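Check out a protein:
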Amino acid sequence: MRNLNAIPLSSLRTIEVIARNGTLRGAADELGVTPGALSQRLAKAEAALGQVLFTRTSTGLQPTEICAQISPRLTAAIGELSSVVSDVQSIGQNTLTVTVAPIFASRWLIWRIKSFNDLNPEISLRVLPAVDVADLDHSEVDIGIRVGEDPALGAGATKLLDQRVFPVCSPEIAARITTPEDVFNVPIIRENELLYGWRPWLAEMGLTGRDLSLGPTYADASLCLDAAMTGQGLFMAWETLACDALERGQIVAPFDVRSLTGATYWFAVRMRSQRNPSVRKFKSWLETELACSVRYWNNHPETGA
């Protein structure tokens, strides 16, 4: 392995990141450097190897044939090195990093996380609310809780929960709703113009082909739920967003029909964390808590009372 003395590991890392990202800017963002600095690193790496690895074009960098051949092996090798570093760093520590959608974190997870901490005081849980889906196998994130129709979403995943939607509102608005057709006579709170969840719910109620009333728009589902609490109209919510507020009596559900959206909550784990006992403990706890919530939701569909 003396040939490794001829080229720094940082040069191999530079090649791997550029090849995997496909753009100099994307690779520079991952490494935390400027594109100009990364371009200089690449030139040094090519000089050390004596090979041109990327063709400079007007649209960016294109891997040469030799680069296309070695880049998957570089990714695998550097991934293994990263795993070694993580294993060494984890000695004497027990930290799990979890990325999750901000709304799921703030409306459901945060209210229950104390029970996990009480049951597992030896595990330090780090929750990262994020809208973007993390590339688990190229980050320090151990677990991703995700919502979507794709069971993989870029990483191996297991199903947690089907997403169901239902209208919610304040008691004052609910008093104006006695039949399903009455939803067309009250303001409809919108997260955007897509009216997420209304189509499957209206179809299940046999109410297709009619326009919903206008109402306030807030570019965040959590704000929309708050708007429903304050009597601004009817909002199509989902269980992990709204059911704790239902249980506390902050909102009500005028109907007991809950419709599937086709989306599912998934539990994804990066490859080198799959055998971590702490991951298994967190997954078991999460599944137990969700099962408890589902039982409650099914037994109290109308008001959460």
